[in-house]
Specification:
single chain, mainly alpha
Length: 64
């Protein structure tokens, strides 16, 4: 059984009164994933900025 199938099976057994909390947690996880991607992009930008600002980089991309 795949993890997704296992989760769906577990959700089927969750009492209706707890489904709002399950949904909130899923939304939390999705938001966490997006935030981690943004944080990674920001960290990459600051470490790569020194290379992007070199004159060699401008010359390499000027014909595009």
């Amino acid at each position: 059984m795949s993890k997704k199938e296992l989760l769906l099976s577990e959700i089927e057994e969750v009492p209706e009164s707890f489904l709002d909390e399950v949904l909130d947690f899923i939304h939390f996880l999705k938001t966490k994933i997006i935030k981690e991607k943004i944080d990674t992009a920001i960290a990459s930008e600051s470490s790569l900025r020194k290379d992007w600002l070199k004159s060699e980089e401008n010359e390499a991309w000027q014909d595009l």
